[in-house]
Write a structure and sequence with these properties.
With 138 residues, the protein is an alpha+beta fold. It contains 2 helices and 6 strands. A 6-stranded antiparallel beta sheet has the order 1-2-4-5-6-3. A hairpin with a 5-residue loop joins strand 5 and strand 6.
């Protein structure tokens, strides 16, 4: 909330250090949908496949950003309390797309589904993240 107007402004995504190192780019950000991309190159494990930990890290980031955007409409912030993922397929090259959409947008908890797909639109990973909404600290 801005003290002068009493209005609530949507929070804008700012990349963290890990996001920058992983090459994450923001494509879209709103309460309804957050979309980002990330290159596979630089995020592979020793067998040349997209690292599952990289998928979880970027998926958790995108899902948390979506929760914070929703929380900002209530004058709150969000912190992750649970994340789970299922890896369906891997990638060796190209760019992945990470899309978070809400399952539940409450005043206390949010839950988002985060899909990670390859350039052909094939699902690589599905995450579910739950965030707790908290009052902002002064």
């Amino acid at each position: 909330m801005t003290p002068e107007t009493g209005s609530t402004e949507l929070w804008k995504i700012t990349l963290g250090e890990l996001d920058e190192k992983m090459g994450v780019k923001i494509v879209e950000e709103s309460v309804d949908r957050v979309v980002a991309t990330m290159p596979v190159e630089g995020n592979r494990q020793s067998f040349g496949l997209l690292h599952g930990g990289a998928s979880l890290a970027v998926g958790e980031a995108v899902g948390s950003w979506a929760a914070v955007i929703h929380a900002s409409t209530l004058g709150k912030t969000a912190v992750g309390v649970d994340v789970s993922a299922t890896h369906h397929k891997s990638a060796r090259e190209g760019t992945i797309t990470i899309t978070a959409t809400p399952i539940h947008l409450g005043g206390t908890l949010t839950t988002h589904e985060v899909l990670i797909t390859n350039e052909r639109g094939q699902r690589l990973c599905t995450l579910r993240i739950t965030n707790l909404l908290l009052d902002r600290k002064a």
